[in-house]
Design goal:
Chain lengths: 42, 303
Amino acid sequence: MTPEEERIVRQRQRSRALVLALLLGGFVVLMYAISIIKMTGD
Amino acid sequence: MNTTTIGTPAAIPADWRDFLALTKPRVLTLVVFTGLCGLLAAPVGVHPVIGFTAILCIAMAAGAAGALNQWYESDLDARMKRTAKRPLPAGRMDRDTAFQFGVGLGVFSVILMGLAVNLVAAAILAVSILFYVVVYTIWLKRRTPQNIVIGGAAGAFPPMIGWAAATGDVTLMPVLLFTLIFLWTPPHFWALALFVKTDYANAGVPMLPVVAGERVTRQQIGLYTLPMAACAIAPWPLGFAGWIYGLTAVGASAWFAWLALRVSTRTTGTDDAMQPEKRLFAFSILYLFALFGALVVDRMLLA
């Protein structure tokens, strides 16, 4: 792998990890909200 | 690690934007909109968080279906100008990654819908994914010019799922909304197929203009428009919607019918820009947005 390809790989891994982290964070918040609604029946 | 298939021998993982492109974001817009309208038009209110979750599940399921469609059709996509730049034919992602992404997203959407919303909505959601991937993409698309007629049912599910998410059941009104999109799909797609006919012919997809010719396709566009318009207007006399929806449906359907009539009664000339066909295709998208938007406005103001 050339240095340029390695740079692209690292860059893509970083951006994918960031997007996944954001999605997971959103999912946790959603699960929390759904749980509260189901528990309170509101 | 997910790798590209062509371009470089090195292992380059696909970009997150390629995963997004795999979900066909432009198609998602209409799917999400009709699903949301089905949810909002239902006679029962739903908690905003549960409603948001239902729409999210519909979007994820549609994205999953789109990803699995691109996974199966990467060879076709590579032969069509319109689709050649998608992540798989362009070599930015390998097929296994697309398959795993599609299956994962689809299963996740159904489970989330079942746990957070209700089982009826989850069941219809699962059927809609399977219908689009198995019945339309794998079974019909390459075999029959009726592919989009039957396959159109897959795109007709979202308002029914939205309705089921709110009410937990399926009554005549969501069935009418389903039928409306089902009958709308053939004139919508055949208008497109008329002006990208060469693309479909090159890819070997048996679209109606390729197999039966333009004259038959134009006739069929006209024939499907009539029951579609009747189905669009039906909720008004049946008492499922008020005058706001009714007048919008009558006006929009009349304009759709006029555009369809122009397409039905003409023949393609040399160096034809296919303007009437392009106009019908563009308006057909606006038509669905207008009808479903009017339905929600009608429900909110008059119910």
